[in-house]
Amino acid sequence: MQNFDYILLLSKRFSGEINASEAALLDEWISQSPENERLAGQYQAIWMHSTEQFKAFRLDMDAEFQQLQARLKLTGAPATRTVPIRFSVFRVAAALAFLLLAVWAIRQFTPTAPANMVAEASSTNIRTVDLPDGSRVWLRQNAQLQYPQKFSARERRVQLSGEAYFDVAQRDGQPFRVEMEDGGIAEVLGTTFSVRASKNDPETSVLVCSGKVRFHPMEKAGAPFCCPIKKAFLTAKPPNCGCWKYLRSMN
Amino acid sequence: MEPTTDQSEKQWLADLRQGDAAALRRIFDRHYPLLLSDIYRYLPDEDTCKDLAQEVFVELWRKRSTLEIHSSLRAYLRRAAINRALNYLKANRRTVLDDPAGRPELADVLAVDTQAESEQDSLEAALHQAISQLPEKCRLVFSLSRFEHLSHREISTRLGISVKTIENQITKAMRLLREAMIKHTHLSPVVILLLKWWWGG
To answer: Which residues contact A26 (CB under 8 A, 6 or more apart)?
Structure first.
């Protein structure tokens, strides 16, 4: 008990920062002697009766406020009264203008077919893309992903060129399909997987880290499932290729 | 003394949101002196205090239309002021925190002010004086924990000082305060009575 700092533990208790093991240690120390108990009481009184210090300044409030106004002007936020819109005519006009703008905006931004978004990773960095369904994609260098602004209700379909790691949000009845450049399709039945498809690389590969991916070189049903850490098509890459996501995102 | 936003302050805030400079003036008149005092506790330099407190009002005005105050206006402004003080301290910690000779200690400034108060012989007044006479860094850290309710870790992060140093300073403050109180009991019979009652001596 020689090096044990009861004053620190008491301070921690008063400021509500003590943890369970420290509290036990402190309670044990307090119960050891009436002297310890008295010391603890003294420190508690000190803590409880400490009051803040207020210093009264001699101030010319007009001058101080003028200084503030000068500052507000400097920062481009002058403290002048803005005239509120009082006339209902203006309000009606403003409301109409807003309505027209809203109608225009809705027409502009919701085409009948949802617009496609394109995300592209640079040649030096991995890029993270958050899809509208909550899925996340890590695009490897030079990879490109096309996805709709809003997925259709029946499926979630994206187009990939290059290599990417997918962490797919699970949704029953709305499969996640990755269309590759060569026409191959990976259909996700699980959560995380890596897809590689590139024009320069004749081999397309899918690496499944967890869950299942149904993979078919051309779009047709009934292809086999891939299970965790298995590749549908073997390439020269070692089977831990999903790891670059973690390595690069730490840089 | 936990201040609350009373009806008039609610009205001022509503006017402020509309861009009413008169409302800014009313809020300024009530809160500016308090903010100066808040900051002075940590940065005992009048010009710096004024500079930082004014910035709080610049910010209040700039953010007026999106202002969301969940606590009281006083608590909101005080927090903003303390945040500025802490940022200032962190940015200037070489000159303010690490150089005890670089700045007159608040204790020197306040010693005269508090002498009159200590004659009131209350435990609070005695402690008040004892706190004002703590070494600069010690008083700063103790006050942040006691009055701003910042955790040791928060103080450490905000000031860029290790948690170990923070804990050492708080321990030192508590020990010095107790020593001061024991000395004080030799001087004032009323405090002895109070201490006997409070401390069960």
So the answer is: A6, A9, A10, A13, A18
